[in-house]
Amino acid sequence: MSATGTVCLTVDNLGRAREIGLGEVFRPDPDERGLKRGVPRMLGLFDELAVKATFFVEGWNALHHRDVLDSILADDHEIGLHGWVHEKWAELPDGQQERLLFDGTAAMRAAGIAPTGFRAPGGYRGRRTAGVLRELGYRYDSSIVAETENDPLAVSILPEQLVCIPWHWQMNDYWQYYMNPAGAQSPAQLLETWRRRLADAARSGGLVTITVHPFVSGVDDDKFSVLSTLMTEAVLDPNLTVVNATALDARARRAVAASPN
Fold first, then answer.
1. Separation between Cα atoms, residue 149 and residue 43, nearest integer Å
2. Is CB count within 10 Å lower at the N or C end of the chain?
């Protein structure tokens, strides 16, 4: 039976970018656990399973951790932009969003990276972002658009002609482990929740966008086991296909080109 459901595999946030933005630290830390342990473990797992991911990375990392970004690209994964220092994106004035998009894109390009996708830190892209992304040559945005966690995900085309690849908080490891209003979830609870989501996608032909963080699911052994188990099951499920965001963008654009309208 051919695969019907889609799993979009994404990774968010690197190094101390968020702490830099909050003023909690003031310099890069090459020994940060996500960089030192999380990214290599994830790259090893993805290589073992022969899957490709999109790493949404803050522009600040292109200045300070280019070696890590190079290791991601060397394994043929994609790097998208994730703000500058993981700002609360939707709370920024339009002009500040615009400046940070230009600065983040310039930092990536100076590091030899040509990002075509963006994900807003904090999930919500705000009003002006999509227009600036189009001006800068981006192809897709992967931010939250659904109002409730139970809304089905669907790739769409924004008015700015960007492909929108949405996600839900329920499939975000940090949110589940540390921010869930029902209480912090254990690895066992998270695995069960995510298994149900993947089973639903396999049955319905729907989309699940998984968002994991190197300093969360790449460092702690129990949390890494959840990621490893889930992705292994997704790869082995004949009714699921695992892709990165660029693959979804290309699929959406092919569908538009083939449409009689």
1. 29
2. C
Q: Residue 22 belongs to what H/E stretch?
A: helix 17-22
Which pLDDT score, from 0 to 100, does residue 1 have?
Answer: 47
Phi, psi of 51 (to 5 degrees): -120, 155
Fold of 5-258: TIM Barrel (3.20.20)
Encode pLDDT of 167-191 as tens digits.
999 999 999 999 999 999 999 999 9
Task: Please check whether residue 135 is in contact with residue 245, taking contact to mean a CB–CB distance below 8 angstroms.
Answer: no
Q: Are 12 and 218 in contact (CB under 8 A)?
A: no
Q: Which structure tokens are listed for 109?
A: 């390009």
CA distance 213 to 243: 17
d(CA 236, CA 230) in angstroms, rounded, equals 10
C-alpha 68/C-alpha 57 separation (Å) is 11
Q: Phi, psi at residue 47, to the nearest 5°?
A: -65, -40
